[in-house]
Write a structure and sequence with these properties.
single chain, alpha/beta, four-stranded parallel sheet, two-stranded antiparallel sheet
Length: 174
């Protein structure tokens, strides 16, 4: 018999993506073995992230300030938008920037919050395509770089967006 609070903790860990029963048990036992202060810091970090993180009003990446620091930056090229699927893709792209100013991507981003997937019932109205078009129409955007994943959904999404933007005279690269 397992104590109910331990079973509940394991159940909560199992709800996380990629966490099976064995990993959930390992995490639960690890948390129980932590010093109380460290466990409280973990719990407080989760609550703080949930309370303070939101989507940027411009690019839809995760931020604790609206708009995000990338969208506010005068050092970024606002005429160049890199379209990605998820906020974690922005973090990956930013890691390529390095420490030198002339390295890596210098433009801004637009996070679609997913990809088109007709088989799963996800259409253009379910992701942030409309907001991308509105952003392009209201600004001085000259190029959009589609950086969706090279899988079926990513390719379908990139093709759809490229066709949608073509009449606007925007250069779309992949």
């Amino acid at each position: 018999m397992m104590p109910l609070p331990l079973a509940q903790l394991m159940d909560q860990f199992r709800r996380l993506p990629g966490i099976g029963p064995k990993t959930a048990a390992r995490l639960a036992y690890h948390v129980l073995g932590m010093e109380r202060e460290k466990a409280l810091m973990l719990a407080q970090s989760i609550i703080t992230a949930k309370d303070k993180i939101s989507y940027c009003s411009v690019c839809f990446s995760l931020t604790d300030e609206v708009p995000c620091s990338i969208c506010r930056s005068q050092a970024r090229d606002h005429g160049l938008i890199c379209v990605v699927e998820e906020p974690r893709d922005v973090a990956a792209m930013e890691r390529t920037r390095g420490h030198e100013r002339n390295r890596g991507f210098q433009g801004t981003y637009h996070v679609l919050q997913g990809t088109l997937s007709p088989l799963d019932g996800i259409g253009p109205e379910d992701i942030r395509i409309k907001e991308l078009v509105e952003r392009i129409q209201s600004g001085n955007v000259r190029e959009v770089n589609m950086a969706t994943n090279p899988n079926q959904e990513g390719e379908v999404t990139a093709t759809y967006v490229a066709r949608l933007l073509k009449p606007l005279g925007i250069q779309v690269t992949r």
